C-alpha cells in the first residue's frame, strides 16, 4: 500500500461537514482548514477548490493561508504523524539520542513519509510539555520522559 | 513514559499557591467543584461594582501583563474602556509557544474556570460583548478543558444574556491556532482569528483602539487573566501583600533543562534565583554545576552563575540585563555546548519569521548561517562583527517583537561567553 490519497467523495464529505460546522465565512477559514486537515490527514487540492468556491475566496489566498501554518499540510501524510520536539529544553535532557533512535527505527529523515504510508516524521519546536522532556507526540498522544531504548516499544503500539 | 490517553503531568511546586490553588489535583476542576472552592464569587462581586471601579482596583493592584512585555493591565483596560465605539472585545492569548513555557497549559488544563472568570470580568470592565480565547493548535487537552468550561459556564448563566440577572451580556468563543509562533504576537493573532495569515500589524495604533476586527480590544495572557478574580475577590491591598512594590503578587516560573525537578513553580515576586533553582527545584542535576540559564525563552537572554543572587522581580532583572519574559528558565550544566544551543535558537527564528519585513526575514537567515558555521567549529575572524551587525539591525529595525528579540539570546551569549564565538 502506498500513501493514501483520498477519494473525491470523502473529500467533499469532509469539506461539507467542516463548512456546516463553522459556517461559510472568511473568519472561519482556519477552523475549516483545520477540521478538513484533521479529517483527511491533509488538505487535498480538491478540498481547497471546494472551499474556495464556497467561501468565495481566491484559491491563491487559501494556499497562502494553508502554507503559513505548520499544522496544515497540502501533501498527503502517513496514517500516523510523529512530532518530535527539537527545542533546547528537550534537547539537553536526551532529545538527541531519542531522535537518532526514532530515525533509525523508522528509516526516515524529518519530513519524510514511509513508503508503506504508515508514518510521517516531523520535527517541531516546543510543544509545551518541557518539564517531562524529551517529548514525542504521535497523532494526539503525548509521550514524556522518553528514553531512546523505549522507542521501538512505543512505535509498536500503532497499527 | 505515558501516552495513548494518559497525560504526562507536570510537577507543581513553589512556596505559595494562589494562581495554582486549584491546580495539580490530578483532574480538571469542573464547574461544581470550582463553585465549592469559591469560584465566580469575584464575578458576582464585580457585577455589583461600577466598571470604572474594577479598573481602578486592577490599577491599584499593580498587575502587569504576564505574556512577557509587562505592560500595566489596568492602563490597558482603561484605554479600551475609554475608546470610542460600542463593539469591543476581550481576547485571551493562549498561544503559549515560547520554548520552555507551559504555565498557561497547566492553568487551562487544571483550572479553566478561573481564566473564564477573569475574561468575563475584563469584558464587564471595558464594556465588551464578546471574548475570544486563542489556544495554540498543538494544545488539545487545554482546548477540551476550556471548551467544556465555556459550555458549563453558559449553562449555569455565567455567560450569555443577563449574566447573574444583571443587564450584562457576554459570551466567549474558543479558537484554535494551526501552528505558528508568530500568532502569539497580538496583532498577528487578530489576523489569524479573522481568517488570514498571521502577519503582524504596525503598532501604534494599539489594540486598545484598533484590535480584533478593527475594534477596541483588550488582549491579555492567560496568567494575567487568572490574576483578575484573585484581585477582585480579596482586594488590591491584600493582593499587594505578596511581592514587591513594583512587582506585586506571585509569578509562575517554568523550569526545564538540567535541573533535578523540572516543573511549574509559583513563588512571590522577589525571591532570589538561587532559592528557586536550588531550594525549590533541587538544583542542577547531580554531579554537575550551572553553566548558564536561559531566561525568557528563545526571545530571552542567558544568565550566568554570577546572577544567582538576583531577585526575581521585573525591576531587579531589568537592572541585571535579564528579561523575565513569560517566566521561563532553562538550565544548562557545564557539559552543554552553548554554540549548539544558540544554533537551535537561530534555527527557530529563521523558521518562525513570517517574512513580512526585510530586517527580520534576512537577518534571521543570516544569523542562522553564521551560527551553523560556528557550531561546526569553523569560526571566521569576521563572524563576531557580522553577528553583532545582524543582531543589532534586527533589534532596532524589525517590525514586531519576533524580529526585535531574535538576536537577544545570542547577543547575550556573546557577551558572557565571548570565546565561543572567536576563532580558536
Ligand atoms: N508567552 C509566550 O509564549 C511568548 C511571549 N513573548 C513575549 O512577548 C513580548 C513582546 O510582546 P509585544 O506584544 O510585542 O510587546 P509590546 O511591548 O509591544 O506590548 C505589550 C502590551 O502592551 C500594550 N501596549 C503597549 N503600549 C501601549 C499603549 N501606549 N497603549 C495601549 N496598550 C499598549 C500592547 O498592545 C501589548 O498588549 C516579549 O517580551 C516576549 O517575552 C514572546 C513570544 C512568546
Ligand atoms: C513573537 C511573539 C510571540 C508572542 N507570543 C505570545 C504568547 O504566546 N502568549 C502571550 O500571552 N503573549 C505573547 N506575546 C505577547 C503579546 O503580543 C502581548 O503582548 C500579550 O498577549 C499581552 O498580554 P499581557 O499584557 O497580559 O501580557 C508574543 C509576542 C511576540 C512578539
Ligand atoms: S519582525 Fe519578523 S516576524 Fe515580525 S513582522 Fe517582521 S518578518 Fe514578520
Ligand atoms: S522544549 Fe520540548 S516540549 Fe518544550
From TrEMBL, chain A:
Question: How is this protein named in the record?
Answer: NADH dehydrogenase
Could you confirm whether the keyword Metal-binding appears in this record?
yes
Q: Where does [2Fe-2S] cluster bind?
A: 85, 90, 126, 130
Q: Which SUPFAM superfamilies is this protein grouped with?
A: Thioredoxin-like
The family annotation for this protein states: Belongs to the complex I 24 kDa subunit family.
Q: Which cofactor does it need?
A: [2Fe-2S] cluster
Per its UniProt entry, which superkingdom is the organism in?
A: Bacteria
Single GO MF annotation: 2 iron, 2 sulfur cluster binding
Database matches in InterPro entries: NADP_DH_HndA-like, NuoE-like, NuoE_dom, NuoE_N, Thioredoxin-like_sf
Cofactor comment: Binds 1 [2Fe-2S] cluster.
- What keywords is this UniProt entry annotated with? 2Fe-2S, Iron, Iron-sulfur, Metal-binding
Amino acid at each position: 500500500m502506498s500513501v493514501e490519497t483520498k477519494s473525491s467523495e470523502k473529500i467533499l464529505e469532509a469539506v461539507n461537514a467542516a463548512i456546516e460546522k463553522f459556517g461559510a465565512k472568511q473568519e472561519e477559514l482556519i477552523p475549516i482548514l483545520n477540521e478538513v486537515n484533521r479529517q483527511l490527514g491533509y488538505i487535498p487540492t480538491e478540498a481547497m477548490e471546494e472551499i474556495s468556491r464556497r467561501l468565495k475566496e481566491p484559491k491563491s489566498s487559501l494556499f497562502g493561508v494553508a502554507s503559513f501554518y505548520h499544522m496544515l499540510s497540502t501533501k498527503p501524510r502517513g496514517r500516523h504523524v510523529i512530532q518530535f520536539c527539537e527545542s533546547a529544553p528537550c534537547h539537553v535532557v536526551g532529545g538527541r539520542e531519542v531522535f537518532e533512535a526514532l530515525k533509525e527505527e523508522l528509516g526516515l529523515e524529518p519530513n519524510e513519509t514511509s513508503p508503506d504510508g504508515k508514518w510521517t516524521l516531523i520535527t517541531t519546536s516546543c510543544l509545551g510539555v518541557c518539564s517531562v522532556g524529551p517529548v514525542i507526540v504521535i497523532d494526539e498522544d503525548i509521550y514524556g520522559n522518553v528514553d531512546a531504548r523505549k522507542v521501538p516499544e512505543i512505535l509498536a503500539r500503532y497499527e | 513514559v505515558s501516552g495513548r490517553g494518559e497525560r504526562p503531568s507536570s510537577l507543581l511546586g513553589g512556596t505559595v499557591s494562589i494562581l495554582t490553588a486549584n491546580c495539580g489535583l490530578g483532574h480538571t476542576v469542573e464547574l461544581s467543584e470550582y463553585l465549592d472552592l469559591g469560584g465566580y464569587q469575584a464575578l458576582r462581586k464585580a457585577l455589583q461594582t461600577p466598571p470604572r471601579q474594577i479598573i481602578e482596583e486592577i490599577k491599584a493592584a499593580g498587575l502587569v501583563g504576564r505574556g512577557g512585555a509587562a505592560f500595566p493591565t489596568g492602563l490597558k483596560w482603561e484605554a479600551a474602556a475609554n475608546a470610542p465605539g460600542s463593539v469591543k472585545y476581550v481576547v485571551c492569548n493562549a498561544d503559549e509557544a515560547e520554548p520552555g513555557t507551559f504555565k498557561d497549559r497547566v492553568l487551562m488544563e487544571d483550572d479553566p474556570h478561573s481564566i473564564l472568570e477573569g475574561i468575563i470580568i475584563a469584558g464587564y470592565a471595558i464594556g465588551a460583548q464578546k471574548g475570544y480565547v486563542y489556544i495554540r493548535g498543538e494544545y488539545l487537552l487545554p482546548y477540551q478543558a476550556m471548551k467544556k468550561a465555556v459550555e458549563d459556564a453558559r449553562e449555569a448563566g455565567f455567560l450569555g444574556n443577563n449574566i447573574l440577572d444583571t443587564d450584562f451580556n457576554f459570551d466567549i468563543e474558543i479558537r484554535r491556532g494551526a501552528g505558528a509562533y508568530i500568532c502569539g504576537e497580538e496583532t498577528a493573532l487578530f489576523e489569524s482569528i479573522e481568517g488570514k495569515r498571521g502577519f503582524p500589524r504596525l503598532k501604534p495604533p494599539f489594540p486598545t483602539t484598533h484590535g480584533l476586527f478593527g475594534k477596541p480590544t483588550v488582549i491579555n495572557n492567560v496568567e494575567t487573566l487568572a490574576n483578575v478574580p484573585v484581585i477582585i475577590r480579596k482586594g488590591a491591598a491584600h493582593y499587594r501583600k505578596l511581592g514587591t512594590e513594583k512587582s506585586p503578587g506571585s509569578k509562575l516560573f517554568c523550569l526545564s533543562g538540567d535541573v533535578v525537578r523540572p516543573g511549574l513553580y509559583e513563588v512571590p515576586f522577589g525571591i532570589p534565583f538561587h532559592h528557586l533553582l536550588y531550594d525549590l527545584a533541587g538544583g542542577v542535576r547531580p554531579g554537575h554545576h550551572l553553566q548558564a540559564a536561559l531566561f525568557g525563552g528563545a526571545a530571552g537572554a542567558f544568565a550566568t552563575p554570577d546572577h544567582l543572587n538576583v531577585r526575581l522581580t521585573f525591576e531587579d532583572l531589568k537592572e541585571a540585563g535579564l528579561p523575565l519574559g513569560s517566566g521561563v528558565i532553562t538550565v544548562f550544566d557545564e557539559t552543554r555546548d552553548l554554540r549548539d544551543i544558540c544554533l537551535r535558537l537561530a534555527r527557530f527564528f529563521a523558521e518562525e519569521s513570517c517574512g513580512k519585513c526585510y530586517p527580520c526575514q534576512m537577518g534571521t537567515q543570516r544569523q542562522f548561517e553564521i551560527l551553523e558555521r560556528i557550531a561546526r567549529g569553523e569560526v571566521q575572524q569576521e563572524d563576531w562583527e557580522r553577528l553583532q551587525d545582524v543582531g543589532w539591525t534586527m533589534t532596532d529595525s524589525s517590525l514586531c517583537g519576533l524580529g526585535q528579540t531574535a538576536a537577544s539570546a545570542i547577543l547575550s551569549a556573546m557577551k558572557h561567553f565571548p570565546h565561543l564565538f572567536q576563532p580558536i
